[in-house]
Amino acid sequence: MMRFNTSLSGWKRAALTGLAVLLTAASAAGCSSTSASQGGAKPVQVASAVKVKFDDKLEQDADLIPSSQVNVIAKTGGDVAELLKKRGDTVAQGDVLLRLDSTDAQRNRDKNRLSKDNLQSQLDKTAQDIVTNKGVLKNTIEKLQLQIADLEKAYNNVRNDYDTGLAAKAQLDKAETQLKTARLDLDTAQKQLANLESTDPLASLRIQIESTDLSAQDIEKSLSDFEVKAPISGVLTDFNPDQGITIAPGYVAGVIQQLNPIKIHADVTETTAKLVRGKKDIPFAVQETGDKGTGTISYLADVMSSGSKTYVLELSAPNADLKLKPGMRVKLQLGGDGKQEGISVPISSIVKEGNDNYVFVLVGDAVEKRKVTLGRVSGTNREALSGVKEGEQVVVSGQQELKDKDKASVSK
User: Fold this and answer.
1) With contact defined as beta carbons under 8 Å apart, do 395 and 46 qualify?
2) What is the share, in percent, of the chain residues with pLDDT greater than 70?
3) Model pTM score
4) How many Cβ atoms from other residues are within 10 Å of residue 372's Cβ?
5) Radius of gyration of the CA atoms of the chain, in A
């Protein structure tokens, strides 16, 4: 009997061991199935975007940008002979930034001056010759007129003698020929004088001199272009050339940014635009330093941008000490009385990329990456002026691993 019981007890132990193995396998299969069903979804934690009342005054993020930015362009080409400014220098309009080698242009100017001097000498000599020739012709005409008067008397006397038989035909012909010749000489002299008085023999030389004057002006303009000057006052934020390099006409030598005054740019919502309209000045605070100032409104768009659904706001602020730099951000103090409602999201949900802010909104089993316009701060929350609606779930943990349209699941 004892041997039977021992055999039965061993059988039970074997059965129990087999059952345990089956249960373990089943449990493992179930876990594998659950894991496979959740594969690809990234675990995140979310919080609701809620409507709250903000106690502080309305603020608006804005960017500092140059009030004007102009390229420094070389109008002529040549070798860089001298650099008079360097990157970062403050320059005034008209300051010479660099000089190009102008040796060839100066040589052309000297040649042109010599050419003009030669033409002027020819002009003076020709003018004097004309005066002399006119005098000679007038004297010649006067002499011929007297000669013709004498020849006419002589011809008449010979004609009378010929008619009475006292002179031969040859004598008459000779007297007639002398008279005709003198008259022809007089006619030629008179025409030459008339031609001198009715025309301008110096016109061609005057035109050539005027041409050299125009060439001189072009050369002087070219010589002035060998000095590359600042087109506006400001800071030389970029300056590329090195001494000795050869540049071509149109070469961009640098960039000047006008920083006094400096421009403040913001994209504001319709609600914010209503607060701004009618104002002349708006106070601001620099986010990096806390320095405060006041900007004068220079532009507020009348039409909303169809893409961003915002209005462009621009202000001008004095910046004599140049402490305000492009790229800095400021908060515009837009005012507003009492408490105002707004959509709030946790600061931990905000993802910053450059100057833009984004949140990930959980929609179903995927996330949407949305750009948001931020407003006031309330504790650990930030006002979302656009991009998020009340009640939507924003990701507050795990968003650094997310991309737009990624699958996500809420972890407990």
Assistant:
1) yes
2) 89
3) 0.53
4) 24
5) 51
Question: Which structure tokens are listed for 211?
Answer: 């041409």
DSSP assigned state of 372: E
Measured CA to CA, the distance from residue 163 to residue 146 in angstroms comes to: 26
Q: Is the pLDDT of residue 33 over 60?
A: no
Tokens found for residue 133: 């020739």
The count of residues in the chain is 412
Map tokens 């462009």 to a residue.
312
Phi/psi-derived region of residue 244, left when phi > 0, alpha when psi is between -120 and 50, beta in every other case: left
- Asked if the model's pLDDT at residue 26 lies above 60, the reply is no
Confidence grade of residue 49 (pLDDT, cut at 50, 70, 90): very high
Give Cα 244 to chain centroid, integer Å. 26
Q: Which of these, 211, 94, 193, lies nearest to 138 by C-alpha position?
A: 193
Which residue, 315, 299, 312, is CA-closest to 261? 315
pLDDT tens digit sequence for 241-250: 999 999 999 9
Strand, helix or coil for residue 188: helix
pLDDT for res 7 = 41
Q: What is the sign of the dihedral through the CA atoms of 332, 336, 337 and 339? A: negative
Q: Which tokens is 106 given?
A: 């100066």
pLDDT of the residue at 378: 80
Q: Is the peptide bond before 241 cis (omega within 30 degrees of 0)?
A: no
- Got the DSSP string for 249-274? TT-EEEEEEEEEEEEEEEEE-HHHHH
Q: Which of 96, 99, 320, 75 is nearest to 221 (CA)?
A: 75
Phi, psi of 292 (to 5 degrees): -115, 155
Terminal CA-CA length for the chain? 59
Distance, CA of 237 to chain centre = 14
Provide the pLDDT for residue 15.
Answer: 41
Report how many helices (DSSP H) and strands (DSSP E) the chain contains, helices first. 5, 21
CB proximity list for 152: less than 8 A, separation 6 or greater: 179
Quote the distance between the C-alpha of residue 245 and its chain's center: 24
Q: From start to end of 74-110, where are the E strands?
A: 78-83, 90-91, 96-100
